[in-house]
C-alpha cells in the first residue's frame, strides 16, 4: 500500500513529480531526451545503454531503435523483464561489444561512478559507429550518493574536454538551471539520504520522502520560480546533459 501511495505522490522514475527530491534533474534529462530523440536521423538503430541499470529511458528510444542493449552488471534488469531489451554483462570500462557496432550510445548518470572515466569514454567511442550519437548526463552539483562508488563531479568544460579528446563533433552541452534549483536538490537529497558512515552504503528514507513531500514540492517549485525571476546564470546547474556525434 505504501509503495502504491509513493508511486502516486512521488511518481515513477523517470516521470517523477515535483514532490520527489530528484525532480529537477530527472525532469531535465527527460525533456532533453524528448528533444534530442526528435533530432536523431534514421530508424531501426542499435543503441547501447551503458550503465543503464533498469533502463528507465527505454521508452524514449523505442520508436528509433530496432535493438536496445543495456550494458551493466548481471542483476541490473529486473527479473521477468518483458520489454525488448537485451543485456550485455559488463562495465563502462570494458564493454562486451565490437568496434563500431551501435548507432547510439546512452550514458546517463554513470561517469561519476566509474573507476576510470577516460577508459570508459574510449570504450564508448570504440563501439559507436562513425556519425553515431553519444548522449549522456552527469551531475555537476550533488551530495555524495551510492557510496562507495561516487568519485567525482563534472563541469560543462570538463565534459567538453572529454568529448573532444575522443574526437566528437557537434557537441551540445546543457545545464538544467541555476543556483536555486541546485540548492533545492542538495537540500532535498541531504534530507532523504542516510547519514554518511564509513563502510555503510547509502539508504533512502521512503517514509521521510512521503512525510516531507509537500515541503519538497514547495522547495522545488519556489527554486524554479527564483531561477526564472532572478536570472539563470548557468554557473551552478545541478545537472548536465549532452549530445555529440562521432566523426
From TrEMBL:
| Example of a GO MF term | S-adenosylmethionine-dependent methyltransferase activity
Do the record's keywords include Transferase?
A: yes
Signal peptide bounds? none
Q: Which UniProt keywords apply?
A: Methyltransferase, Transferase
Concerning SUPFAM superfamilies, the annotation shows: S-adenosyl-L-methionine-dependent methyltransferases
Instruction: Give every Methyltransferase type domain span.
Output: 49-135
Q: Does the keyword Transferase apply?
A: yes
This protein is called: Class I SAM-dependent methyltransferase
Q: Which organism is it from?
A: Thermoleptolyngbya oregonensis NK1-22
Amino acid at each position: 500500500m505504501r509503495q502504491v501511495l509513493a508511486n502516486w505522490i512521488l511518481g515513477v522514475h523517470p516521470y517523477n513529480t515535483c514532490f520527489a527530491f530528484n525532480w529537477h534533474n530527472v525532469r531535465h534529462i527527460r525533456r532533453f531526451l524528448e528533444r534530442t530523440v526528435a533530432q536523431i536521423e534514421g530508424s531501426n538503430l542499435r543503441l547501447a545503454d551503458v550503465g543503464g541499470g533498469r533502463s528507465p529511458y527505454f521508452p524514449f528510444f523505442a520508436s528509433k531503435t530496432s535493438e536496445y542493449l543495456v550494458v551493466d552488471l548481471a542483476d541490473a534488469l529486473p527479473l521477468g523483464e518483458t520489454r525488448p531489451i537485451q543485456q550485455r554483462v559488463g562495465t563502462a570500462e570494458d564493454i562486451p561489444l565490437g568496434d563500431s557496432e551501435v548507432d547510439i550510445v546512452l550514458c546517463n548518470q554513470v561517469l561519476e561512478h566509474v573507476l576510470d572515466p577516460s577508459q570508459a569514454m574510449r570504450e564508448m567511442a570504440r563501439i559507436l559507429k562513425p556519425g553515431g550519437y553519444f548522449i549522456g548526463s552527469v551531475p555537476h552539483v550533488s551530495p555524495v550518493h551510492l557510496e562507495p562508488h561516487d568519485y567525482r563531479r563534472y563541469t560543462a568544460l570538463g565534459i567538453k574536454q572529454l568529448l573532444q579528446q575522443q574526437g566528437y563533433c557537434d557537441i551540445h552541452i546543457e545545464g538544467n538551471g541555476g543556483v536555486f534549483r541546485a540548492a533545492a536538490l542538495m537540500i532535498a537529497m541531504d534530507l532523504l539520504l542516510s547519514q554518511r558512515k564509513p563502510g555503510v552504503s547509502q539508504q533512502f528514507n521512503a517514509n521521510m520522502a512521503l512525510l516531507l513531500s509537500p515541503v519538497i514540492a514547495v522547495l522545488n517549485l519556489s527554486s524554479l520560480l527564483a531561477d526564472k525571476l532572478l536570472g539563470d546564470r548557468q554557473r551552478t546547474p545541478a545537472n548536465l546533459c549532452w549530445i555529440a556525434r562521432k566523426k
